[in-house]
Amino acid sequence: MAKATIDDVAALAGVSIKTVSRVVNREPNVRAATRDKVQQAIDKLGYHPSQSARSLASNRSFLIALLYDNPSASYVIDVQNGILAECKPAGYDLLIHPCDHTDGDLEQQVANLIRQSRVDGVVLTPPLSDNENLVRRLIGMHIPVVVIAPADDSLPCSSVMTNDEEAAFAMTTRLIEKGHQRIGYILGHPDHKAMANRYQGYRKALMYQGIPVDAKLVVQGLNSFESGYYAAEKLLLSNNPPSAIFASNDEMAAGAIKLAHKLGRKIPSEVAVAGFDDIPAAEQIWPGLTTVRQPIATMAQQAAQLLLLQLKSADTPVQYQRVKSSLIQRESV
């Protein structure tokens, strides 16, 4: 059977080729009844429009770029799935590109990528989502951009974030309610500014309960499993070790659990461990990790929604959306 063409769809639906093109490209101002009739013809004929033809007709690539610099594969996959859940039905494909946020030539590299790939819009994840110069460079190129999990609402673009400080406050309070007074904290990577909000939640919860913030119980991590292991080593081998450790992400919490096992410390009776994010490994390790579930896929899907709104109308106002995280109780606390 010959491959169906746009002419076949137009003939079956009883409309013009231009109308079919407008439906395929999801352009506005097509009556619902006409759109349904064309879609029925497309489905019956099994018509698949040429991507290059769509691009030429609309002067768009129907391609969105996801730029990331995050070593966690599960995080990137969650963001990818969230964006695709929104973009695929809208007829957009996804270009996923890793970046090095410490590269002094980052802005030019991204600008070159945009020109070569002709993407219609960009989604940035941490720590790129806190790079104001990069955001302004994209805006200057007239590229719609949405950021995920920035530290605050100060950037001149739409964003989707979670309640990091509030969630960390709640987790610290949970540990205190379990009887812990000396709670060690493993800081996140200093370049990930949203991590600072989690630390503030930890500090405020202690102060609210009248517990002094002990600098000796706060150790720098780098968001990786290895950094969590060595940070926990500093805490648990100190002269006055904490009875609980709250790591600002799950990768580091998993490293702390490994170190506790190595030292023969029983979890949670001798040391409790909590994390943040609820990555898949959080329920796969033993004991299961008590953590904060960050709805990463939902945040990514909402970011894609905001981006698609901008692509439909350049007059779409900047929007700031928040998605709440939740505590997940498992065996480590």
CATH superfamily of the largest domain: Response regulator
Report strand order across the widest sheet.
Answer: 2-1-3-4-5-11
Averaged pLDDT, please?
91
Please tell me how large the radius of gyration is.
Answer: 24 Å
Ends apart, CA distance between termini:
63 Å
Uncertain parts: none
For this structure, what is the CATH class of the largest domain? Alpha Beta
Second-tier CATH architecture of the largest domain:
3-Layer(aba) Sandwich
- How would a textbook summarize the main sheet? 6 strands, parallel
**How would you spell out the order of helices and strands?**
HHHHEHEHEHEEHEHEHEHEEHEE
How does the overall form come out from the CA principal axes?
elongated
Class by alpha and beta content: alpha/beta
Task: Summarize, please.
The chain is built from twelve helices and twelve strands. The protein is an alpha/beta fold. The strands form three sheets. It has a six-stranded parallel beta sheet, with helices on both faces. The protein has a four-stranded parallel beta sheet with strand order 7-6-8-9, with helices on both faces.
